[in-house]
Each structure stands twice: as structure tokens, then as C-alpha cells.
Amino acid sequence: MRAWQFVGTHKPFERVDIEEPTAGPGKVVIDVKAAGLCHSDVGILEDEKWLSTMKELPVVPGHETAGVISEVGEGVTDWKVGDRVAVWPLAEIMGYMVNGAWEDRAEVSTDALVAIPDEVSFAQAAAATDAGMTSVGALSTAGVEAGMKVGVIGFGGLGQIGARVAKLRGADVYVAEVNESIWDRIREAGATKVAKSITEFADVELDVIIDYAGFGVTTADALKAVKSSGGGRVVQVGMGKLESTIDTYSLILGRKQLHGSMGGSKNDIEETMRYMASGDLKPTITEIDFEQIPDGIQQLMDGTSVGRLVAKVAD
């Protein structure tokens, strides 16, 4: 069957043919319909630090997965062939510790399965499993609730979901996005104000800022811009770069807080898909063909991708 493999840092993904998996005890095989692309997929190509998250190479990347169960293993009783499912990627660290979704069929533990509502497409479901899970999980880390002033950095694959769900929870949302061509879309999602830099909201007294970009300066800017009185909080999600130089003077004297947030729970995926099913959440998704995955990765590198990139693996 078809697959893309990560074979090492600073090396391109390789298109290969590998053996089809079979469903072991407590597992299922999914015919993959849609597989997401993420900035961390760029990161593994560029930074050796990612190797510590992997058991062995080569590995099939892809941690956003949606498809249809085609085989069930011994002891599986709660799921059946034909079920539409998405995959919670943190159950087995999919795409890192085990093969991910950039393949025609994937073996997955039943602990990772999440049912896809009828109203949600495979592309939406794939995006919900990481872009949705991670962005909504960060809202939980930040303690976002009605009446709060929330800053969001980046309106890409994650930020567009985080900003919209924060608004649906009743928060006032201020978005920093360098790409002015999507500002109208940001306002349509319910943002109170939009600007190029989060520092332009320094006088707003933001209760929390969630950095979905993580390009070094964005983290530093967030710590400067979040409120000092009452201990403003910055939640770091984006990993555009793995280092940042911050102003500890502002951090300490302002009694501010800096939290890391990685991934989220199955409940975060389910919440995301509920909003998708109701029509309240309509993230921008750009679908590409399976064979175009390297082109999609290049778009992420160049900053030209629109919304969340999802590869169509099968009809």
C-alpha cells in the first residue's frame, strides 16, 4: 500500500510502498480517508530535537486521522466494520511512536477511537483530531470562560479554531495575525479586534494570550502584552520555532504566568466536532491529494497555506 515515510532530519519525506497492517488484539484497521498536515511535520524535517519523540525510523507521519473501520481485532466489541472514526493521536503518539495517517490503511488502538458525527466530513474530522484538540485543549489550560478578554496569536490551522471556540464560550477575542488578507474572515469568526501584532493590544488588559504560532518573538510579545495586574497568563501552543528569548523583567514584576499546552483529550476532539456538526464552527480547510503531501509541506514552510491542510487519501 502507499505511504510517506520520515527517514531522518534534513531529508525529504519518501514515498514508498509498505505492507498492509492487520488488526491486532484490541485494535482496528482503518481505511484512511483524510489525513492532516501540521507545522510539526515541518519541524521534524528541520530540527533534531523531534527525534526524541520517535521510537525508531523510518516512521509514517500524520497525526490527524479520519476514516472507516475495515477490520477489527480480537476482543473488539464496541466498534464494527463500517464505523466512521477519527483518532485521538496521543493514545499511541501516532505519527511518531507508531505509524501515522500518511498511508492507505492504519492500525489503531480502540482507546484512540472517536465516532464521527454524520454531519461532519472526513476532512473536518481529521482537522478536529489535532488542530481542534490542541486548540481547544489550550483553552482549557488557559481557563477560558465567558467574560474573559482573550488574545490569540495566529489564525492558521489551530488559531482559527481556538479563536472561534473562545468566542462561542463567551469570551472577547483579540486576534494577532500578520496576514491582512484574512482579517475579514477573522472578524466574521467573532473577533472583537484584529491587528498584526499582539503588542497592539497591550492596553486592553488581556486576561490570557494563547500563542498558536510560536515563532520566538510571538512568545516574547505575548508575555509583554498580557495584563500584569492579577497575573496575566500566556499559554504556549505553537512550535514554529523551538526557542524564544523572553523578557523575565516583565514576567517577574508583572507576576505573569507562562504555561505550555500540548495536545488535549478525546473530549476536546468531541467538543470540536459538536461545534462542527452544529455549524457553529466552520474552519477553513484546504484539501490536497495524497501524492501532493510534499507540496503541502512546502506551503507550510513558505507560509502560503490557507487554513488547515488535509490530504485526501481515498474516496
UniProtKB/TrEMBL annotation:
Belongs to the zinc-containing alcohol dehydrogenase family. This is alcohol dehydrogenase. GO terms for molecular function: alcohol dehydrogenase (NAD+) activity; zinc ion binding. One of its GO terms (cellular component) is cytoplasm. Residues 8-311 form the Enoyl reductase (ER) domain. InterPro entries: ADH-like_C, ADH-like_N, ADH_Zn_CS, ER, GroES-like_sf, NAD(P)-bd_dom_sf. Pfam families: ADH_N (PF08240), ADH_zinc_N (PF00107). The keyword Cell membrane does not apply. Keywords: Metal-binding, Oxidoreductase, Zinc. It comes from Agrococcus carbonis. The keyword Oxidoreductase applies.
